[in-house]
Amino acid sequence: MNKINVAIVGLGFGGCFPEIYNYHPNVNTVGVFDTDKNRLDTFADRLGLKKYRSFEEILEDKNIDAVHLVTPIPLHEDQTVKVLEAGKHCACTVPMATSVDGIKRITEAKRRSGKNYMMMETTLYTYQFFYVKNMIESGELGQIQFMRGSHYQDMSGWPDYWMGLPPMWYGTHAIGPMVALSGSRIKRVICFGSGTMEPWLSEQYGNPFPVESALFEFENGMKGEATRSLFETARMYQEGMFIYGSKKSFEWGFTDGDDPYITTLGELGNGRGKYTEYKKTEMPNFHQSLPEEIQRFTVGGNFDPLNPQDSLKKGSGGGHHGSHPHLVNEFVRSIIEDRKPWIDEQLGGNITAAGLCAHESAMKNGEQIFVPKY
Ligand SMILES: NC(=O)c1ccc[n+]([C@@H]2O[C@H](COP(=O)([O-])OP(=O)(O)OC[C@H]3O[C@@H](n4cnc5c(N)ncnc54)[C@H](O)[C@@H]3O)[C@@H](O)[C@H]2O)c1
Predict the structure, then answer these.
(1) Do 98 and 139 sit in the same domain of this protein?
(2) 299 closest CA partner among 290, 289, 308, 288
(3) How far is ligand 1, taken at its centre, from the CA of residue 256, in Å?
(4) Do 259 and 330 have their domain in common?
(5) 108 shares its domain with 132
(6) Is residue 367 helix, strand or coil?
(7) CATH number at residue 357
(8) Is 0.90 topped by the overall pTM?
(9) In sequence order, which residues have a C-beta less than 8 Å from that of residue 101 and are 6 or more positions away?
(10) Residues 239 and 264 in one domain
(11) Which domain holds residue 269?
(12) 316 within a domain of the structure (yes/no)
């Protein structure tokens, strides 16, 4: 099999993906569905895509090999299980599910179906993530001493299902890079919830906290911390990754668009403490690993193949720091190559479950919680 047929469900954030699939050399046809008919018509007609009238119609279509879900969070578990049970490969946006039982249900459906599951975690394919991964693999960073993740975002005015969501239920952007770079899995967490918010926000999920901050223990002994805010907290948007090594460290800029800081630990001079210096560092693009047809989606609309680095500066960000085409490529290529995708049900399951267990810990005032193994 050299080409697959894909359907995308949910065209809010999901609207970033149909065009990328459409240009991928291993994709034959792209279909779309959204319960919002106007949105569906606008997308399908503009890009000339096949329009589905229901989710079930996609499940019943024998020509569809793979489904990418970008629907509201409470639907992820059920829709993923249905896609896998229909004998199709499934990619789903984050989080994987909203309960540890939900993750287990998905891993079991995946095993029964023999199809691929991929959690489409954007932070694991950003320019910044590729850069840090290279620093670790080349030995430049030295030994990882500590990791931090952050995700500050104000969700007022977002759709109803977001209102009062426990911050760590959507902790994946803060937790994901730590798990992926650790070469291990999170096994234990303690977490505190902090702050107060308007009482109505606590009603939907019984969550009293606008902010949650967690400490994680990894199976290989590493430790990491993540902080997540969703409501009534004055902080610039940031999905930050902070990796502290014995030789160098990588720290995200203050806002999400700022260049990161690389700090180098130098030699000990005559005084106390080693010499340190830091440098704000421009990120290179990592488009080369992608098929040429979709490289331009790493930077939005301004990609110049003759000068990709310059395009990066002029570009509109390319959606979550260039990650969208990498996610599409990994999902599609894993199917074509008949292998598991990198962010499979185990990696995605650990990242999501660590956040779910963190919230459980916060609700028990910091009690330690062991993260189930999938
Ligand atoms: N960086 C990231 O990874 C990232 C960023 C943004 C959103 N997300 C995730 O993407 C998902 C969607 O986010 P959003 O901001 O577009 O949400 P949204 O709620 O604004 O939009 C979801 C879309 O799905 C449609 N929809 C609702 N129910 C549906 C159903 N049963 N079948 C088909 N379509 C349906 C809606 O009409 C809407 O167009 C969320 O789960 C969110 O967690 C991830």
Answers:
(1) no
(2) 308
(3) 21
(4) no
(5) no
(6) coil
(7) 3.30.360.10
(8) yes
(9) none
(10) yes
(11) 124-283+353-363
(12) no
Ligand 1 pocket residue status of 71, Cβ below 6 Å: yes
**Total residues belonging to the chain:** 374
309 in any annotated domain: no
Is residue 13 within 6 Å of ligand 1 at its C-beta?
yes
Q: Which of 70, 79, 122, 241 to mutate for ligand 1's pocket (most ligand atoms within 8 Å of CB)? A: 70
**What's the rounded Cα separation, in Å, for the pair 89 and 119?**
12
Give distance in angstroms: CA of 40 to centre of ligand 1. Answer: 13
Which helix (H) or strand (E) covers residue 370, if one does?
A: strand 369-370
Tens-binned pLDDT, residue by residue, of the chain (374 aa):
799 999 999 999 999 899 999 999 999 999 999 999 999 998 899 889 999 999 999 999 999 999 999 999 999 999 999 999 999 999 999 999 999 999 999 999 999 999 999 999 999 999 999 999 999 999 999 999 999 999 999 999 999 999 999 999 999 999 999 999 999 999 999 999 999 999 999 999 999 999 999 999 999 999 999 999 999 999 999 999 999 999 999 999 998 889 999 999 999 988 899 999 999 999 998 999 999 999 989 986 555 555 655 555 544 455 789 999 999 999 999 999 999 999 999 999 999 999 999 999 999 999 999 999 98
Tell me the CATH number at 66.
3.40.50.720
Tokens of 37: 């008919």
Amino acid at 184: S
- Domain shared by 43 and 159, yes or no: no
**Residue 66 and residue 109: Cα distance in Å, rounded?**
15
